[in-house]
Amino acid sequence: xxxxxxxxxxxxxxxxxxxxxxxxxxxxxxxxxxxxxxxxxxxxxxxxxxxxxxxxxxxxxxxxxxxxxxxxxxxxxxxxxxxxxxxxxxxxxxxxxxxxxxxxxxxxxxxxxxxxxxxxxxxxxxxxxxxxxxxxxxxxxxxxxxxxxxxxxxxxxxxxxxxxxxxxxxxxxxxxxxxxxxxxxxxxxxxxxxxxxxxxxxxxxxxxxxxxxxxxxxxxxxxxxxxxxxxxxxxxxxxxxxxxxxxxxxxxxxxxxxxxxxxxxxxxxxxxxxxxxxxxxxxxxxxxxxxxxxxxxxxxxxxxxxxxxxxxxxxxxx
Length: 318
Ligand code: TUI
What we know:
Strand content: 5-15%
Largest sheet: 8 strands, parallel
Bound molecules: ligand TUI
Order of helices and strands: HEHEHEHEHEHEEHEHEHHEEHHHHH
Distance between the termini: 29 Å
Radius of gyration: 19 Å
Number of strands: 11
Helix content: 40-55%
Strand order of the largest sheet: 1-9-8-6-5-4-3-2
């Protein structure tokens, strides 16, 4: 057992959310994480509402545990998905890449637990005022669309700034990361990259192999010029984007170059032209495992560390 305000809020065994990775996180992955005792998330990404509705219904055939949907607020379908959450009575909604303010009243009235992902203290405060139930504080070690602050610096500052529970994200892939997150003031974790290399993750095998082969320094951040920086595994495509930024391309041209690149990674496994989003912790991910084993190891190891720090790490506190 690993009881915190997050497990109480969500009615789950372990305080862990699976990251709502666009194109990656489907009903199969979400159900596997929920069946492991965490909260699996279906990614809204840039998908239309009909696709997400199908995934929600499929997820319900695969698990009777709580699960959620991540809404990527830059999506042209965000408003439709917001309504879909109410129609389908989705228990948990996380949001990313913007402020969910205009949807929150409707979600609250429908009894949905709302957990915005935020990259700064200012946004954390705003989301709490708007009625968020908890927050994911995501550091820039994370994969995908990121902010500027590291997990180590962001989590304690957010935890000090708000009263609602904080869930740490960015750079967490083992029991040490979970224990550290709790020490920083978080009451749960969100994990993305580790689940890319899970048996139930339905991405092209080339994507999984790139994550397994990645070293600590193998990710790159591109797109700062557009205001939407993205971290992914360094490849020909990230080098092309970096050159483009250096040589004075416009943000519009940059967006045009990027369109479809995540799909090329996830669906086609196109190592040259795909955007293989992953966090810096990919360097530590060495093996494909079932989600259940990943969750059990994360919390088994974290529990051992917290309870037996002296024996495990030789730390003596006098
Ligand atoms: O959203 C994410 N990670 C993502 S979204 C995504 S899909 C995408 N693909 C290409 C370009 C852009 C997106 C891939 N990975 N994480 C949560 C997150 N949210 N990180 C940063 C933010 C964020 C940024 C600004 C949250 C709120 C925000 O508010 C700005 C405002 O409106 O005040």
